[in-house]
Amino acid sequence: MTGSVIAEIKTLGSWAKVQKSFWYIRSNLTASVAADRVWKKMDKNDSLIVIDATNNSASWHNLSDEVSKFIKDNWV
Fold first, then answer.
1. Residue 10 to residues 62, 66, 68, 70, 73, Cα–Cα distance (Å)
2. What is the full DSSP assignment across the chain?
3. Which end is more exposed in the chain, N or C (fewer Cβ atoms within 10 Å of the end residue's Cβ)?
4. Once rounded to an integer, what is the mean pLDDT over residues 55-75?
5. What percentage of the chain exceeds 70 in pLDDT?
6. Predicted pLDDT of residue 30
7. Domain locations in the chain?
8. C-alpha closest to that of 12 among 47, 40, 44, 46
9. Angle between helices 31-39 and 3-11 in degrees, nearest 10
10. Rounded to the nearest 5°, which phi and psi values hold at 38?
11. Which long-range contacts (CB under 8 A, 24 or more apart) does 56-64 make?
12. Any bridge partners for residue 49, and if so which?
């Protein structure tokens, strides 16, 4: 994870780094807006998923079709 990705994550709101590439963010942004902002700083061979636990939504970039379908089919 590059410094520019980390810097962008930290602009989204209150944050905690849970693991190397796993962050908890409290933000007023939608999952889609947050994902798009971070994705702009990422390498295009990376993948990203942002989950909005408050509003029960998610947004992602560069996940396989199989994983995307699984998430859509199983999202409760």
1. 22, 30, 26, 29, 31
2. --HHHHHHHHHSSEEEEEETTEEEEE-SS-HHHHHHHHHTTS-TTS-EEEEETTTTEEEEES--HHHHHHHHHH--
3. C
4. 96
5. 100
6. 96
7. 3-74
8. 40
9. 160
10. -70, -40
11. 57/30, 57/31, 57/32, 58/31, 59/30, 59/31, 59/32, 59/34, 59/35, 60/35, 61/35
12. 60
What pLDDT was estimated at residue 73? 95
* Chain position carrying tokens 């990705």: 5
Q: Indicate the average pLDDT of the chain.
A: 95
For residue 38, the one-letter residue type is V
Rounded distance between C-alpha atoms, residue 5 and residue 56, angstroms:
24
**Mean pLDDT along residues 9-33:** 97
pTM: 0.90
